[in-house]
Specification:
The chain is α+β, with helices and mostly antiparallel strands. About 15% of the residues lie in helices and about 25% in strands.
Length: about 280
């Protein structure tokens, strides 16, 4: 995935373990607190950081995007939990991966793929290169009773806690050679048209897409809802509605002093078409 968050970012090693959370659990219920309670019961001297709990329910692609944006801004040794898990209770694998300076704990459903691709540790077929992965199969590093509907608490949280406390990755289960890669929608080219998708709507109502500058023609025209937006803007103030390169490196649709998503009726998954001028 294109973006401005490459692996070359300097990441000092942290002496106090850090665990982050990216989930679709929201904050209305006790799910996040239960996961944190399990972790603190295993490794109390840990810093817990929420990347986001507002991923749209079951939207693996959005969770993958948010994790990709944030993971390498954390110090080396950070453990990232990503639980957007519509397949919980099925035969999908719970996994952990050591990739570069970071550890990841997640269901094997594609949610890790963009982050691993950004580190050049994953090929297009999903094979790991220079990264270590395991299935979280060792019962010693799970809770005694595992719910069929809440692996976040009973499998992923304990695994992250043990990894953060220094347990070797290979203790948690057998090694794997590949992971699933089907988290994000692909940019589609049909003739002179290019079609992208909205990956995320941020707090300001900016609709962030899977399109980058390299995907679109020179002087592009974007078909967004009822509008035709011409070219790439340089700031949020340039036009009432604009397409610009956001801080993620992706193209986003924005409204000056307003919410593009609300005013144009844009949601995660919606199509954005691009034509040459």
């Amino acid at each position: 995935m294109a973006g401005g968050h490459g692996a070359a970012l300097h990441c000092p090693v942290t002496t106090r373990p850090i665990i982050t959370f990216t989930t679709d659990f929201g904050t209305t219920d006790t799910y996040v607190a239960e996961m944190k309670g399990v972790i603190l019961g295993i490794t109390p001297d840990v810093t817990l950081v929420d990347i986001s709990h507002d991923v749209w329910p079951q939207n693996i692609g959005q969770g993958a995007f948010l994790l990709r944006r944030a993971f390498n801004h954390f110090p080396a040794g950070t453990v990232h939990i990503a639980v957007v898990d519509p397949g919980v209770g099925t035969d999908r694998r719970p996994i952990a991966v050591r990739a570069g300076s970071w550890l990841f704990v997640a269901p094997d459903n594609g949610v890790l793929a963009p982050s691993l691709l950004a580190l050049d540790l994953l090929d297009s077929s999903g094979r790991l290169h220079g990264a270590e992965g395991v299935v979280l199969a060792n019962p010693a590093y799970r809770r005694n009773q595992v719910s069929g509907t809440f692996h976040g608490r009973d499998i992923f949280a304990p695994a992250a806690a043990y990894l953060a406390s220094g347990v070797p990755l290979t203790e948690l289960g057998p090694t794997i050679a590949s992971v699933l890669t089907t988290a994000l929608p692909e940019v589609v080219g049909v003739g002179v048209r290019v079609q992208g998708r909205v990956l995320h709507v941020d707090h300001f109502g900016n609709a962030i897409t899977n399109l980058s500058l390299s995907d679109v023609p020179a002087n592009p025209v974007f078909l967004v809802g009822r509008l035709r937006l011409h070219g790439i803007s340089s700031s949020y103030q340039e036009a009432d509605f604009a397409v610009l390169v956001g801080s993620s490196g992706q193209l986003e649709v924005a409204a000056r002093n307003g919410s593009a998503a609300r005013e144009l009726g844009l949601s995660v998954g919606d199509s954005i078409e691009v034509l040459p001028s």
